[in-house]
Amino acid sequence: MKEAEVKRLLAANLLCVFSVILSAVVPASFWHGFTVFGTHLAWLCICSVCVSTLNIILHLVLKPNLSPKRSSFAHKISRFLKCCIYFFMSCILFHAIIVLYGAPLIESVTETFLFAVLLSTFTTLQCLCMLGPNIQAWIRVFSKNGATSIWESSLQITTMCSILGAWFGAFPIPLDWDRPWQVWPISCSLGATFGYMAGLIIAPLWIHWNRKQLTYKSR
Prior knowledge:
globular
């Protein structure tokens, strides 16, 4: 494992963390009254767009899982359309799962769907950028010892941290504290965001710490 590759991963992940912070800070400078709590739906949209844009740019620049085969322009268009469909299906699936876990079915539909979009941005979009619309590759990466590179190990960690963060974020909602961040889905989306950011920082540090034990085999 090359130390330079770990440093590239750390730099890319820190940029993603920085994009999340900017999504909360920059709009407040020109949007009067903008806050993560007060205008939460707007922040969900801004954060999703910022993270999505940066992830796509980093994928195009760093090319962590670049295939040696050259593909035609038609194939690239087809792949892009498949990725869009997969991302939309992921949003619908996350929305359904969130409702099954107790979110309002009819009320707060917009809030629930935007939270699902945020979760898809933190999880599915990364899979699409890294692995493309290949379900078998997704299953391989998230199986035991399935990662074949440090980028895929980072994908495992950030995805799991994002989902766990969203789950832990739901705990304060039923408590009778009457805090503004207990309104649906603020605590869950903040939990997912902090989980995502924690995963981005933990992943390269964990990989560096365990670099002697990690052995990646091409498949």
